[in-house]
From TrEMBL:
Residues 190-219 are annotated as: Disordered. Residues 1-30 form the signal peptide. It comes from Panicum hallii. Dirigent proteins impart stereoselectivity on the phenoxy radical-coupling reaction, yielding optically active lignans from two molecules of coniferyl alcohol in the biosynthesis of lignans, flavonolignans, and alkaloids and thus plays a central role in plant secondary metabolism. This is Dirigent protein. It is found in: Secreted, Extracellular space, Apoplast. Its main location: secreted. Homodimer. Residues 190-201 have a biased composition (Low complexity). GO terms for biological process: phenylpropanoid biosynthetic process. Pfam families: Dirigent.
Amino acid sequence: MAAVKATSAAAAVFLLLLPVLVPPPAGVLAADDDGTTHLSFFMHDIVSGSNPTAVQVIKGPGSTTAPALGMSFGDTTVVDDALTETSSPTSAALGRMQGFYMLSSQSGPVLMVCANLLLTSGDHNGSTIAVLGRDDTAADVRELAVVGGTGKFRMASGYVLWKTSSMKGADATVQLDVYLTTGNGTTIDAAAPVSPADGSSGSSGSGSGSKASSGARTGGGWVRACAVAVVVAVVGSSWVW
């Protein structure tokens, strides 16, 4: 009987320590003691081939100022890049990065990034994280800001550590480590409906309109910043078709 009790106690201790001994795989949410959520995934920015996920829509007027990227000052690219669990593009799909980046430096390979990280799997399907910031591609690790979010990440704030994993020509695989906190449960109703990424309709009700408008206002600053950036890029530039 004593041996059975000792075995049961050892098994209980092992189960308690299991989450510590086995770290969560890439892409799985982990909450720190201070309430910070950590997400990790890989972005695949493909500009080559017959089905690119990054397409240049504005061509700057000058000569190439960032040879490593094949870009000139003012060049602007719209992206719908895959987010996956590992650096392999065939690993589990976790979402998409949708937005744009432009070469914003006249003297180096520095991009201004404005994008939504759309999550498409698990409980966070349909939630987004708004990212805005400076991407100095010559640096090993870059830090961009989390300036908002929707769904499970309403009123999110934090930062993204952006690290190039590999390059093949102009195609890039970038590791993203996102650290954020949210305002859910304080000023926004966390139970408000979230639209799934597959476009299917969510819950309906008389209160949904006011909740949706409240969520839109929280991201207004980010939307205005992106709109200003697009206007600045378009003025004096020509569209490439």
